[in-house]
Structures are given as C-alpha cells and as structure tokens.
Specification:
Strands 5, 6, 7, 12, 13, 14, 15 and 16 form an eight-stranded mixed sheet that branches. The chain is α/β, with parallel strands linked by helices. The radius of gyration is 23 Å and the shape is globular. The C terminus is likely disordered. It is 27% helix and 24% strand. The chain has eleven helices and 16 strands. Bound molecules: zinc ion (2 copies). The site of one zinc ion (ZN) has 5 residues, from helix 2.
C-alpha cells in the first residue's frame, strides 16, 4: 500500500481487500493527507492478527520522522498493538533532509526504527531478494522541509522453461546445465558433441518484467526518480490543478503538478499508462475531469493510456504490457 490518507481503513471495507491483505506500506511524505489513516489501519491489522491468534512483523517505509510519528501516536493514545511488531524503515541521506531531522526518541519495544542509506545513484533499495519484485525509491521535489519520495515496483524477469524432450533429443539430460540455458548461456550436451543454443530448447516467449511507479506530491522529479520510472507500465502521478489554475497563483497549490506537467513526465519516462491522482477537491464536475484528462493526454502523447483515478478503481496491468489496439 502506498500512502494512507484519512478514511483508507473505512474504504477498504468496501473492497475485496481488508487490513489483513496489506503486505507492506510505503509513505511518500509526511503531509497529513498521506499519513492520517496510518494509526487506525495499523490497529485494524493488529486486531486481524489477534483474531487469528497470530503475531506478525510488518514493514513500513518512508521519510525520517515516520518512526516518531507512529511511536508517539501509539504512546500518547495508549493504544494496544499487541499482535503486530513494526519495523519502520526511514530512508536517510537524502537531499531534502540532511542527516537526522531531530533526536529520535525510543518508543515501545515492538516498534523498531531501522534506516536505509541512499545509494550512490540517488536511489534507496527497499527490497531486492530472489523471486520477489524489486522495490526502490528516489526523491521528488515538493515543498521545502517536506522530504518526498516516489517508488517503483519491478518484477524480476520470469525465467523461460526448457523443452526437455528437445534437450534430451540433443543429448542433454535434465541437470545443472538446464539452469545455464534458462539464463541464456549456450552449453555442450552430455557427451560434448553438440553445442546447444538456448533458443533451440527454450519454450514460450520471454515475458517482460512489469514496472509500476508511483510518485508523491511534486512539481518535479529528481534525475534519480526519472531514471527509476523509465519505461514504467504504469505511472501514478498527481495532477492537483489545471495549468490555468496554477498560473492564477493559488499559493496553497505551489509544490504540485498540473495535468499537463503529469503528462510531460509520463512522456519523458515513456510510461505506457498514466494514472492521474490527488485531484483537487475544486475539480468537482465531469467536464472538469474530462478537461483534466484531455490536457494530460495531449502532453503525454497518442500511445499513452490515460486513466483518472477514483475510489475503488482497479487497473489490471497486462503481462505483455499495454497494447495500442489501433496500431495492432
Ligand atoms: Zn497531498
Ligand atoms: Zn503534500
């Protein structure tokens, strides 16, 4: 789950998901509209575990300050969190906040603070283990003093399988060399008489690993974030106001993007599908939303699929990517 605004726990009740199905939580930044739902959701998750007689460890990733926010909330509200151990990973060493933001307190023992340092390439690696999606983060520019991140979730390349009949016919019995072939390395057959090219025995077409990117509130992405989001199948980007509304100088809206800006970013990173979210409550009518969509579409180009997010939207990301039917 990415960001937990107020009301998320209640809205979850009207979906096929529930608090027990949430795997990890990622927080883009500490603004209230992105974190106020977190304590309630965590309590709900703890109750789900308690009802099952389980206890589980749960990871939350976000900016420095996240540990104190969660720890302090549970201390002051005297709320139980009996069936959940929290590991809170703060991404440190960023540009927006240098070093430790303040003296970190020690909170209750089942809420642990951990840190993840920034890599040389300006990214944070949050998950990189075999057979699981690779999850990384980088900074985006929002407002001074409010460090903000974007995240990418990328599948690992799915290995193709070996047609054993074909391999055996070429004199290679199942064994360690099959793994080399799956990785694209040619091998000799068992008696060293035939050099087998992987393409001769692999079956199925290679499946491109899908990439999902979501960026927090911003008026610009860092170069590292642009690199991470490159060739995303889906990019979720805010579109708080239209260009005209921004130019009219609504000061509160500084630090945000227009629909056009979101479209330009989608084109720059070659996203196949752009999902606009974080739409201003001032955009109330259907013509407003259509206008927003058209402006983003014009900026991101013909082949970019455009979706304006709404509550309960479900978007399937096809295995072989989005296909432009008109050009098939
Ligand atoms: Zn926001
Ligand atoms: Zn914000």
């Amino acid at each position: 789950m990415f960001d937990v605004g107020e009301g998320v726990q209640r809205q979850l009740q009207f979906t096929t998901m529930n608090a027990g199905t949430v795997d990890k939580i990622f927080i883009t930044h500490m603004h209230a509209d992105h974190v106020l739902g977190l304590p309630g959701l965590l309590l709900g998750m703890s109750l789900v575990q308690k009802a099952k007689g389980n206890r589980r460890t749960f990871q939350i990733y976000g900016p420095p300050g996240l540990y104190d926010y969660i720890g302090m909330t549970f201390n002051l509200t005297k709320s139980g969190l009996e069936s959940l151990d929290l590991e809170i990973y703060e991404m440190i060493g960023g540009d927006a906040v240098a070093g430790e933001p303040f003296n970190v307190r020690k909170h209750r023992s089942n809420i642990i603070r951990k840190t993840i340092p920034r890599q040389k390439d300006g990214t944070w690696v949050l998950q990189d283990i075999p057979n699981m999606p690779i999850i990384k983060a980088a900074e985006v520019a929002h407002l001074p003093g409010i460090q903000t991140f974007g995240f990418t979730v990328q599948e690992q390349e799915a290995p193709r399988s070996i047609n054993a009949d074909k391999a055996i016919a070429m004199g290679l019995k199942p064994g360690r060399k099959y793994e080399n072939l799956k990785k694209g390395t040619p091998v000799w057959n068992d008696n060293g008489t035939i050099f087998i090219n992987p393409e001769n025995v692999l079956e199925g077409r290679p499946r491109k690993a899908r990439k999902f990117s979501i960026v927090g509130d911003n008026y610009a992405l860092s170069p590292a974030m642009i690199g991470l989001a490159q060739d995303s199948d889906v990019l979720v980007h805010e579109a708080t106001m239209t260009k005209e509304q921004m130019e009219n100088g609504d000061a509160v809206m500084r630090g945000h993007s227009s629909a056009e800006m979101a479209g330009v970013v989608a084109k720059r990173v070659n996203a196949k599908c752009l999902v606009l979210n974080h739409i201003s409550p001032k955009m109330k009518t259907k013509p407003d939303i259509i206008d927003l969509r058209n402006r983003a579409k014009e900026a991101c180009g013909e082949t970019c699929h455009l979706v304006v997010a709404h509550d309960f939207l479900e978007l399937m990301v096809p295995l072989h990517g989005f296909v432009d039917v008109e050009h098939e």
